[in-house]
Amino acid sequence: MTRTSRGARQRLLALSSRHHIEAHWGALGRLPGHRCLRGPETGMAMLKGRIGATGNAFHLGEMTLTRASVALDDGTVGHGWVRGRDHRHAELIALADAVAQHAEWQEALETQVLAPLADELAERQRRDAATAAATRVDFFTLVRGE
To answer: What NCBIfam families does the record tag this protein with (predicted)?
Structure first.
C-alpha cells in the first residue's frame, strides 16, 4: 500500500465532513492519549486570487478558519486546519496528523479512515461534475456567407 503524503492527507481530511471522519475513526480502535497544545481556535485567513495564470495577485476576501494542535502522550505533535468553525473537525485532523507519524498506526489510518474518505470524496466530486455538466450551455456563432 502506498502511503499518503502529509499534504494529501491534510487536504482529504479537511475536505471530508467531520461526520464522515468520525464514522470511520472508530475502526482504529484504542488510540494513544493526547492533549491539546493550541486551540481549537477560530480566526480569519486572507484569500488571495490571481487573474489567469500570470496576472497580478489581489485580495479576494476573508475566510473563517479553525486550527488545532495536539500532542500525543509520547510528545508527537500534530496540526490541523479546516475551513469554517468546527472545532472537533480541526482536532480530528490534528490527531490524525500526529497518529500518522507512527509506523504502527499508518496502515490502519490509511485503510480504515483515509481510503473510505477518498472514495466518498471522489464520488461527491463525480456527482457534482455530473450536476454541472447537466446545466452546460454551448454557444456558437453563425458566420454570414456574403
So the answer is: PhnG_redo
Tell me whether the omega of the peptide bond preceding residue 40 falls within 30 degrees of 0, making it cis: yes
CB–CB of 125/40 below 8 Å? no
Give the DSSP H or E segment for 46.
strand 34-50
State whether the Cα torsion 69-11-87-35 is positive or negative. Answer: negative
pLDDT single digits (tens) 69-84: 999 988 899 999 999 9
pTM, whole model, 2 decimals? Answer: 0.81
Q: How many CA atoms lie within 13 A of 100 on its CB side?
A: 24
- Here the cell at position 80 is 490541523
